[in-house]
Amino acid sequence: MQYPPASPSRFLALLSGLLAAVAGCRQTQPSIAAEPETDPVPGVAELQAREPRSPPPVVAPACGADPWTTYAHDAARTSASGGCLAGPLRLAWTFAPRSATGATTFATRAIADADAVYVAGALGPTPALWRVGAADGKAAWSYDSRTESVRGGWPTLAAGRVYLVDDGVNAADAATGVGHRAELDAWGESLSDGERLFAENDWYLDGYGLYLSAFDLDLKLLWRRDYNALARGVMVPDVGGLAFGGGLLVHAAQHGPLTGSGLSAFEPATGERRWRVAVSPLSSPSIGAGLVFVVERWPGERTDRLVARHLTDGTLAWARPLAGARGPAPVLAGRLAVVHTSEAVLAFEQASGEPVWSAPLLRTAPETQSATTLAAAMGSTTLVVLSGAQVHVLHLDDGLELWAGAPIPHAKRLEGPVVTGRSLYLVADGHVVRLDGTDAR
Predict the structure, then answer these.
(1) N or C: where does the chain have the smaller number of CB atoms within 10 Å of the terminal CB?
(2) Is 230 helix (H, G, I), strand (E, B) or coil?
(3) 206-228 pLDDT, tens digit each
């Protein structure tokens, strides 16, 4: 099935219904101050509906084999690579993990560089990693963490190692697969600033509780922050996460109804907290142009918002009421911040929050931090959107659909798009597939 072309006017129709109740009210500027200020959080900000306007066109760099080395492409979580992608797409290969003992195996997430794809998944009940050839989809090695609970975290490639935070903090040599585990009972995102590995535990079964940690690249613990032992026995929402940019590490700590939820920035070397905002983060953060982008809910309210905050101090730059966009980090592509809601893909100007375009493509993946559905290919100025079993390629300037199809026979659910060079990798029903555009070479 193919969806009709996107229309800028449909964005206004979607947004104006949400904002109609406040359209005639005096506009105020919402402000949730970062700690250490102690003033109470103000009420719901009133936003007036405005005509969407188009920004200058996104400038496309030359197409390159930009590696996708962690969740959302990079440490800033932009979900935008320098690769190129245009339809129609064709299936190049499929990788289905196998077990020598006959245990149930499946892939959950994958990252890639020019030579290899690093796949995270399950080897029976155990989180595992595989290295797969980018050219042929054949496995070179596998790493068995020898633990017992798979949640499907994204791996991180850094300093010749592949890291995975899934029932422990694991590291495997990217060339050989030989690895080790630093600690047990940790599930969540990871990233590296080139000197350290940062990891969170956002799901409590046993062990320390919820926290943010820093390790050296050999997995020696350096510091631990945002620790919440009160999470014992409580399963919190699978949202929140990490981003690194502008010399700061940002942690969206979602600890559910317990105290401790908030958005914070830390010095990466020492773990010193630079600022904190007492909100409930409902997505992973992303960082660009001196701003932090995250989906939030404010204390005492029932409205989700796409929010931009100043990276330096956490103060509010702008906010837009927005339902159904929880989980993945907002995509930062050129001048745009893009999210995939339950009803549509929506693009906003990063600097002002002004709406730019919409595309009526349903989000069918779960509202969790790891289940991504968007990937920007800046070399071709295109955006990949996954909806059900369909792959859509949109133009970033205006959201118009350039191609749509179902290139993976019999697939039911697609997640985790990754663009490297001129290829698209994604997870289809537990398998990793490579799709190439017609100009792939």
Answers:
(1) C
(2) helix
(3) 777 888 999 999 999 999 998 87
* H or E stretch covering 220: none
Residue tagged 């942690």 (tokens): 251
For 14, phi then psi, to 5°, come to -65, -45
Look up residue 145 and give its two tokens: 């963490």
CB 72 within 8 A of CB 351: no
The H or E element spanning position 12 is helix 8-19
- C-alpha distances (whole Å) from 45 to each of 224, 283, 305, 315, 346 are 35, 20, 11, 15, 20
Q: How many CB atoms neighbour CB 211 within 10 A?
A: 23
Largest CA distance in the chain: 67
Cis peptide bond prior to 56, omega within 30° of 0: no
Q: Of the candidates 306, 313, 361, which has an alpha carbon nearest to the alpha carbon of residue 332?
A: 306
Sign of CA dihedral 418, 428, 330, 152: negative
User: Is the predicted pLDDT of residue 20 greater than 80, yes or no?
Assistant: no
Q: Supply the pLDDT for residue 230.
A: 67
Cα of 253 vs its chain's centroid, Å: 15
**Pairing state between β 273-277 and 262-266:** antiparallel
Could you tell me the domains of the chain? 8-23+45-437 (2.130.10.10)
Closest CA to 370 of 194, 123, 139, 111: 111
The Cα–Cα gap between 341 and 125 comes to: 32
For residues 400 and 407, give the distance between their C-alpha atoms in angstroms, rounded to a whole number.
Answer: 20
The answer to whether 208 and 229 are in contact (CB under 8 A) is: yes
Residue 380: both structure tokens together: 């071709």
Written as one string, the DSSP assignment of 128-161 is: EEEEEETTT--EEEEEE---S----PPPEEETTE
> Rounded to an integer, what distance in angstroms lies between the CA atom of residue 123 and that of residue 112?
20
Helix (H) or strand (E) holding 284, with range, is none
Q: What is the pLDDT of residue 272?
A: 97
Structure tokens at 137: 């989809």
d(CA 179, CA 195): 19
